[in-house]
Description:
Helix content is 12%, strand content 37%. The longest helix has 19 residues, at 56-74. The protein contains one helix and eight strands, in the order βββαβββββ. Strands 1-2-6-7-8-4 form a six-stranded antiparallel β-sheet, covered by helices on one side. With 156 residues, the chain is mainly beta.
Amino acid sequence: xxxxxxxxxxxxxxxxxxxxxxxxxxxxxxxxxxxxxxxxxxxxxxxxxxxxxxxxxxxxxxxxxxxxxxxxxxxxxxxxxxxxxxxxxxxxxxxxxxxxxxxxxxxxxxxxxxxxxxxxxxxxxxxxxxxxxxxxxxxxxxxxxxxxxxxxxxxx
Length: 156
């Protein structure tokens, strides 16, 4: 299912320079794929323009947040999605230390498990041309309705 997907701005709480994904490519209820906007990572770029691959962890977390927001919408929730907290990661693997700002990248998050407000996602960062993942691993997140400064959470 890729038609009718809302813009990233409606699915993520991040604004401005901290919104690092370009658009939702696909969401099928099992996993979500998003286009990464490496140029948006300019805030983290080295002087030579290269971006450290560890930024993939934030791309993975934002893709997991998009997955969660789309699932909530499918359940009939309205309003902004609740904020989430990245609790940790496991088995992260990075193939290269650097990425190029002009590189076409996609990130995928598949919910591996979850109970209550805690979820685990298996994630991959891939070059838009395909091939082996540039980064992969599992992230753990917590949905938190009442974080200070967030204006609340899930409404609906």
